Amino acid sequence: MLSERLKSRLDKNRPMTSITLRIPVDVVESLKRIAPLRGFSGYQTLLKAYISDGLRRDEARFHDEREARFIDALKRRGVPDSVIEEAGRELTGE
């Protein structure tokens, strides 16, 4: 099941904004050279893909860490592993 946050990220018509980045010329040239090799129409699309990949990885990492801290806090408060596991299965629909 997709979260609402992920569903909104998949929406092609979501609001966009323009930003300005200062990037070394050699990096832009490398992006332009690599983009078609990766199947992208241009270097800006490749750059957005790199940003999205890194963002998804960090979001998952920090979410997993927060979840682990939450589970540890429940255990310190005496919540049995079986209850935590049952709640986890309920959340994932297993």
| Uncertain regions spanning at least 5 consecutive residues | none
SSE ordering: HHHH
What does the overall shape look like? elongated
Helix content range of the residues, please?
over 70%
By helix and strand content, what is the structural category? mainly alpha
The oligomeric state of the chains shown is single chain
Strand portion, in percent? Answer: under 5%
Average pLDDT, to the nearest integer?
A: 86
Radius of gyration: 20 Å
Give the total of beta strands: 0
The largest β sheet comes out as: none
Terminus-to-terminus distance: 12 Å
How many distinct domains? 1
Number of helices: 4
Organism: Pseudazoarcus pumilus
Protein name: CopG family transcriptional regulator
What does this structure look like?
This is CopG family transcriptional regulator. It comes from Pseudazoarcus pumilus. With 94 residues, the protein is mainly α. The protein has one domain. The chain is 70% helix and 0% strand. The chain contains four helices and no strands. Helix 2 (25-37) packs across helix 3 (43-76). The radius of gyration is 20 Å and the shape is elongated.
Outline of this structure?
This protein is mainly α and 94 residues long.
Question: Could you list some keywords that capture this structure?
Answer:
94 residues, mainly alpha, 0% strand
